[in-house]
Amino acid sequence: MKQHQRLWRYLISFFTFFLINCFAVSCSFILFLQSLNYTEEEIRQAAPITAGNIIFISLLFAGVYYIINYYTVEKPVKIIRRGLETVTNGDFSERIDENGISRDFLPIVQSINTMTEELSSVETLKTDFISNVSHEIKTPLTIMQNYSQLLQSENIAYEERIEYAASITAASQRLSELITNILRLNRLESQQLKPKAEEFDLSGQLGEAVLGFEQVWTDKEIELDIDIPDEVIICSDKELLSLVWNNLLSNAFKFTKKKGTVSVKLSVDHDFVSVSVSDTGCGISADTGRHIFDKFYQGDTSHASQGNGLGLALVKRVIDITGAEISVNSTLGKGSTFAVKLRRNRDA
To answer: Quick one: 229 and 320 in the same domain?
Structure first.
């Protein structure tokens, strides 16, 4: 039905244009002939030839117009519409071929191809995110389910019962941290959390963050190298930056082996302050370094049970929205240094 309607539309349009041409050419002939002196007999003899010429010229003009119109307007529109229909149906791999597209429509085609590339990337990220979230949630749930079933056994020693309960608690804490981090990251990415600048003592905040891991460094006999000047006042979002220091320190202590060293240094340079967190852990390979700020990426799978791969993604997002900078310097097998540079005053 649509094809018939389109055909009738083309025919009506063509003949309308043809009749307009006939009228224009006829008027031109009449004006031209009025300036010449022909007898009535000569005009009667020339009339069929003139009418034929008018029809031929009008058909020629209409044909040329529609050929040009087809290749410069109708064909590109048809290609663009077909491509958009494919994208609308959920196929974001569709790319419109730019060859043969007229210059007027080329920017539109390029914009559509850019849009589908972005949509394809978003779709891939969404699929990966769902897959990773499902995996990360399934692991602690499986642990909780298995140990809860073991706890239902009648013949189970008290020590084993305590051990199983501790495993369930650890798994539930990991699940809670995962959900909390997902919600935080979602709020940061959707800009529901906006930085609130306030003056605070960065030195004190860093000291509190380090003390929060006292049990970890004590158990692993880690040596601390702390170089933090007193009362370094900055104006930024205190709560968001706390996420940065806690995640960087958590990674540093996690990847540092027993009796290793973790360093925290704060330096001040006019309008900027720099915070570096270093460890003597396993280091980061070049390939891993390109992905460490990706959600759920864990370069060292041997420590996967101690995290969910969202910490550095949170760090990067906070760094971006607070206008700070972060860099990573790492040597495989020797350790890593994460350096954060931020303004002391947001108006500076």
So the answer is: yes
